[in-house]
Structures are given as C-alpha cells and as structure tokens.
Write the structure tokens for this entry.
Amino acid sequence: MTDPKTNRPPRQPRREVHGVLLLDKPLGLSSNDALVRAKRMLRALKAGHTGTLDPLATGLLPLCFGEATKFSQDLLEADKTYEAAVRLGIRTATGDAEGEVIAERAVTCGADALRVAIARFTGEIEQVPPMHSALKKDGKPLYEYARAGQTVERAARRVTIHEIALLDCGLPQAPTFTMRVTCSKGTYIRTLAEDIGEALGCGAHLTGLRRTAVGDLSLDGAVTLEQIDAHDDAARPAMLAPVDALLQRCAPVTLDEAAAGRFLQGQRIAQRDLPAGTALAEGELARVYGGEPQRLLGVARMREGALRPERLVRL
C-alpha cells in the first residue's frame, strides 16, 4: 500500500525506544547524520548522541534513546580512547589527510626519538584548539572562520593524556606510526599528532582515527548502520544496550516496594530503609533498582545519611 500523494509506502509512526546503541560510525559520516539515520531506522521518538566524532574518524559513537538521554551528559564528560595513524614530515591546513599540504620537512628521527617525544605529551598538557573544529568563537564554529580563510585567536586549554601507547612504528624506513591514546574530554588527537611532529622537528598530520572506547563502553558489541538495516523492524530495539549500561561505575542499590514507591515520588530514602549491608560514602552516586518486575528507577546520591534522588527513570 502506498501514499497516493507521494507514491511511497506510508511513514511508520515513531515509538518509545529506551537504551544505548553502540554504533560503529563509518568514515565520512557526521555524528549528527549517523544519529538521524539510526533514529529513523529504530523509529525512535527521542534520541541524542554523546559528543561528536569527526566525519573522517570511525569507531564508537554511543547513541542514547528515550530515558537514556538523561545520562548522555555523563558520557560527554567521560574519558575517550582512540587509535590514531600519523604521517610525519608533512603538515596540512586541517591537521589531517583532508587538508592541503602546507609544509614538508625531512624526517631524520628514529623510533627512540619518537618514544621520547610521545612521553613528553602524557599527563596534563595544554592544547590550542584547531581552527578546523566545532568549538565556537563569538557564537560561530571555528571551522566557519577557517573556511573563510580567517584565523582567530584561541586560548590554550588544559587536557589530560592518561596514556599513549605506540602500537606500530615505521621509522626509520617509513615516516609513519600508530598510537593508542586514552585522554580526557576536549582532547584533539589531530593537535596531539601535530604537536608530536613539531617536537620531532618535522611536523605531522593525522591520516586515520578510530575511537575504541568512551568511558566504560567499548566497541565490543558495537553495530554498524548496515547491520541495523539488515534486521527486521521489530527486532531492531533489541540491538540497544539497557539504560543502565551508562551507569556501571555507580554502586547498585535495590529498594523494597515501599521505598521504591517513595523514591519515584522524589523522596529521599533514609539509611535505615536501605538494604542491609548498603555502604555508600557521603556524596557517592548509586544506581537504584526496584519495582516488580525489578527495573532501573534512577540515580541517587548519598547525602547526610539518606539516599537523595537526582534523576528518575520512567520505564
């Protein structure tokens, strides 16, 4: 049956979908475009991503649906892990393989010098955000200035590089290397690659980038848009991880029926009404379960001897 106005099958209605889709984003697709496609295939009413991944990067892009969107900010704040391929000796206008070449220098360093340079960039460092980025200046993304041929002043920002592991090194035969980087939010891997190149005196640019982890989430179990599309419509929601997949670092607390009812009304739960043996430190965040059948009720923080609701989940 087709719509007589468009001669196409009628659009199916949106539905309530709750959970986290671990998407393996393809090359060349923006995070927003990936979200739009996944949302359409799942026919979801509400969805959001957890921070952008460059079109030229592939890998883990967690997408939150329904009640999981209440916790998407937590993933924005989480540490990230990337695998980055770097070409030494060539600088580009964008810091990656998409930009035009702006400088070429001889690569005279060896693997030992590369390891020394990498070690200099672990810990807390300062980075100047690249012009080709979505960071805003006076309400306009920096990449819009860059496309207009303008360079604007950017303040250096402090980020933390927890670890850089050298995965592959072509030196001295080939001017390439691959590294795995675990870093804080707001870290620009292309800037890190450029800075390592400058430390070696030859310059560098990023030739490939793949994100492998966001917080506790990894590519294990991640799916592609093609895999979602290959499933029947009714089976697609089952491809989502549950909402509490975002909360695994929080201690679990299960409430009895009476306490669960009060919790869902936004009331605090005194220590005496918590399960025996519950030991939460002052200020600790917990994921709270209850009901029949048992389900996630939300998150709460221990304050002054009581568990105080912070975000409730309506499933």
Remarks:
- The first helix runs from residue 31 to 42.
- Residues 17 and 44 are 6 Å apart (CA to CA).
